[in-house]
Design goal:
By secondary structure, this protein is an all-alpha fold. It has one domain: CDP-alcohol phosphotransferase transmembrane (TM) domain (Four Helix Bundle (Hemerythrin (Met), subunit A)), CATH 1.20.120. It contains six helices and no strands.
Length: about 180
């Protein structure tokens, strides 16, 4: 259990605390505590990969858990935002569907001995989704237009990154047997 894997597990452990502060009415500062937790969890995502690559600490556990932890964090946040009527459910369905499609696609690729690396489109998508989530949690009226623009950009990047993965790796779906 190296440092990157500990950071990944820390991110997973933060998710229930994030959800509680997003949905419960505990204090007057719930949304700010939830936002702080989300930012910390998002930063662990940035750090674990950089540390793993820089110090050659990449493990099979990390390859499996890191993307899973990311999906759990983002999907949990999006579902909470739907519950709070901060984002339309159909947008969240598109985002989550993209994650399922890519995960299935990667599973098929893996079965064929092909590793599909994250693309720049996927990284842009993740960045915009995380910024969108932060803006929606903060829910500051003065920047509601910015929040809406970031949401639409995140949605477009979600679809573009999906198409990019599928087009670049279309050979994965060919039956070679």
């Amino acid at each position: 259990m190296n440092l990157p894997n500990k950071l990944t597990m820390f991110r997973v452990i933060l998710i229930p605390f994030f959800v509680v502060f997003m949905l419960a009415d505990i204090t007057a500062y719930d949304k700010w505590i939830a936002l702080a937790i989300f930012i910390i969890a998002s930063l662990t995502d940035l750090l674990d990969g950089k540390i793993a690559r820089k110090y050659n600490l990449v493990t099979n556990f990390g390859k499996f858990m890191d993307p899973l932890a990311d999906k759990l964090l983002v999907c949990s946040a999006l579902i909470c935002l739907v519950a709070l009527c901060k984002i339309p459910a159909w947008i969240v369905i598109v985002i989550i569907a993209r994650e399922f499609i890519i995960s299935g696609f990667r599973l098929i690729a893996s079965d064929n001995g092909v590793v599909i690396a994250a693309s720049y489109w996927g990284k842009f998508k993740t960045t915009f989704q995380m910024v969108m989530i932060c803006l929606m949690i903060a829910d500051i009226e003065a920047i509601s237009l910015l929040t809406a623009i970031v949401m639409w950009v995140a949605l477009v990047l979600t679809v573009v990154s999906l198409v990019d993965y599928l087009v670049k790796n279309k050979d994965v779906m060919k039956d070679t047997k």
